[in-house]
Amino acid sequence: MDAHLENKVLIREFNEDRDIEVVEKLERNCEIGSKKGISIITNMMGDPLCRIRLFQAHVMLVAELVENGELVGVVRGCMKYVGTGSGGRHVKMGCILGLRVSPKHRRKGIGLELVKAIEGWLVKNGAQYICLATEENNVASTNLFSLKCNYLKLSSLVILIQPINYRTKDPPRDIKIEKLSVDQAISLYKNRLRGKELYPVDIDAILKEKLSLGTWVSFFEEEDWVDLHNKESNEDFNIRTPSSWAILSIWNTCEAYKLQIRRAHPFKCFHATLRHARAKVFPCLKMPICDLLQKPFGFLFLYGLHGEGERLGELMKSLWCFASKKAGTVKDCKVIITELGVSDPLKDHVPQGPSMSCINDLWYLKRVNGPTDDGDEDEDEDEDEWTSNQRIGPVFVDPRDF
Q1: How far is CA 378 from CA 129, 130, 164, 257, in A?
Q2: What rounded mean pLDDT belongs to the chain?
Q3: Which SUPFAM superfamilies match (predicted)?
Q4: Is pLDDT larger for residue 62 or for residue 335?
Q5: φ, ψ (nearest 5 deg) of residue 24
Q6: 309 and 336 share a domain?
Q7: Overall number of domains in the chain
Q8: In this structure, are 204 and 349 located in the same domain?
Q9: Other beta carbons less than 10 A from residue 4's beta carbon
Q10: Are 171 and 322 in contact (CB under 8 A)?
């Protein structure tokens, strides 16, 4: 992309050969205050592109001082194709991730220049909307996006974190938990996700990614799930579901972490990050900080949480317990994590015992282009109403963002 120069700062694309070590140093020196504090520990160091490389269209931009070539900021962006949850419409969504500015160069407009540059790239690539998330207590970010960049606050989310040593009960004997084939999971999600806001149209790519461990459903033994074991037929399987059922998929970050450990000693890489994570995540682990510094650390992310029926709560709790026990069999896994909208009814069905830790998020959205499919004026008005509501309902949180 074309570089541009303002306020003696050059915004250009990340060059792995010349920038990787400098970006890693910048990440370490930044006061981490992003929505995904724990994901920075496990994914960001050693792989600056990790949170965007699984998307077909992605970019990372850096801010460089013209006078001496010092790298003082970074931002990441990617393109998604998502459903809006109403009328079956799809939109091109640009996402901003991982905005960082060197502490000694803040309050100089560099963050704003990075946002403008990444927005330009996203618009150039067809974005109709741009979204982002930041921690609720990150005042600098919320002011930047809401006051200076005209983003609307749409919803609040909560990241739920639980250590795997939490004592979970075995599911009741009358509840069955079955693993779906990838094709069955794709079919069921596509059939049921239309009611979700911002669900990924490329759900098949997510479920086929090697970091996705699989998809499981739970239902009561007294009700059979038609064609569940017929891996070649999905028609009856989707239509004739039990009266109550639940589903979730599991994403594994532990292997990504191991790649980083080989690059450098954990203490050297994670010292700055731990200042943020200690207050957010580590207290619930009940492990000495020195052990966490020296030992590999990973987590399982639970995504695609969904279900139907009056007894959904019992079934979702059984799946959560199943996932916790499964995490105990994954090497270097310390916690399980999920993210849900505060308005998502499933939030009340996740076991929230004394070991559960929470991080509150805010989602922001801005419309940057009209619809591109058919130019229908009525549809255009509907999408204006979508942003003017300043709130979205239950969302499908994309595990690739972690």
Answers
A1: 18, 21, 49, 47
A2: 78
A3: Acyl-CoA N-acyltransferases (Nat)
A4: 62
A5: -60, -40
A6: yes
A7: 2
A8: yes
A9: 13
A10: yes
Using left for φ > 0, alpha for ψ between -120 and 50, and beta otherwise, residue 33 falls in alpha
Distance between CA atoms of 268 and 287, rounded to whole angstroms?
Answer: 20
The whole-angstrom separation of Cα 62 and Cα 98 is 11
- Could you tell me which residues come within 8 angstroms of residue 220 by beta carbon, excluding any fewer than 6 positions away? 174, 175, 176, 242, 244, 311, 315
Q: How close are the terminal C-alpha atoms of the chain, in Å?
A: 26
Question: How far lies 327's CA from each of 83, 111, 313, 346, 369, in Å?
Answer: 31, 38, 21, 21, 42
> What is the rounded CA–CA span in Å between residue 141 and residue 153?
12
Spell out a b/e string for 144-172, using b for 16 or more CB atoms within 10 Å of the CB, else e.
bbbeebebbebbebbbbbbbbbbebeebe
What is the per-residue pLDDT for 267?
35
Q: Model pTM?
A: 0.81
| 180 and 40 within one domain | no
Residue 190 burial by CB count (10 A; 0-12/13-18/19+): exposed, middle or buried?
Answer: middle
User: Are 340 and 378 within one domain?
Assistant: no
Query: Do 73 and 203 fall within a single domain?
Result: no
Q: Which of 137, 147, 65, 53 is nearest to 98 (CA)?
A: 53
Residue 301 within any structural domain of the chain: yes
Provide the strand spans (E) within 147-273. Answer: 152-163, 175-180, 199-200, 212-220, 245-252
Pairing type for strands 129-135 and 199-200 reads unpaired
Q: Please give the distance of CA 97 from its chain centroid, rounded to a whole number.
A: 10
The token duo for 362 is: 């805010």
What range does the domain containing 188 cover?
162-254+279-359
What confidence tens digit (pLDDT) does each residue in 164-190 have?
Answer: 865 667 778 899 999 999 999 999 998
188/299 same-domain check: yes
* Rounded-to-integer distance, Cα 391 and Cα 276, Å: 28
Q: How crowded is residue 89: how many other Cβ atoms within 10 Å of its Cβ?
A: 16
CA distance 398 to 209: 12
pLDDT reported for residue 286? 53
